[in-house]
Amino acid sequence: MRYVRYLCIAVFAVALVSVALANRGVVTLQVLPQEVAGWFAVNPSVQLPLFLVILGSIVAGLLVGFVWEWIREYGERAEKARLARETRKLEREIARLKGEKHQGKDEVLALLDEAS
C-alpha cells in the first residue's frame, strides 16, 4: 500500500512539473478591473508566470474548500462533544449507584454481583 501511495505522489509531481514547464509564459495579473480601479485611484497588477497563477488558484480553492467543510461540520462536532459529556456523566452516575447498591455488603459478594 505504501508503494501505491508513493506511485500516486510521483505521478502527481510529474503532472505538476509538466504543467509548470508548459506554462512558463509571463502574464499580467490584475487584482481589480480597470473600471473599479479608477474609483480607488489604484491599479494593482503583478506579472507572474502562468503556472504560478494556475497552482496558486488550485491552492486557494483547496483552502476555501477546507475552511468551508470545517465550518459545515461544526454542528456535528458540537453534537459529538455533547454526547461525550453526557456519556461521562452517566458513567459516573452508574458507578455511584453501584457503590450505593453494594454499600454494607460483603466485598466478595459485591464483586460477584458486579461481574454478573
TrEMBL record:
Keyword Coiled coil: yes
Residue ranges constituting the Lipopolysaccharide assembly protein A domain according to the UniProt record: 42-94
Keywords: Cell membrane, Coiled coil, Membrane, Transmembrane, Transmembrane helix
InterPro entries, A to Z: LapA_dom
UniProt-listed Pfam families: LapA_dom
Coiled coil: 80-107
Record-annotated membrane-spanning stretches: 46-68
Keyword Membrane: yes
Single GO cellular component term: plasma membrane
Name by which UniProt lists this protein: LapA family protein
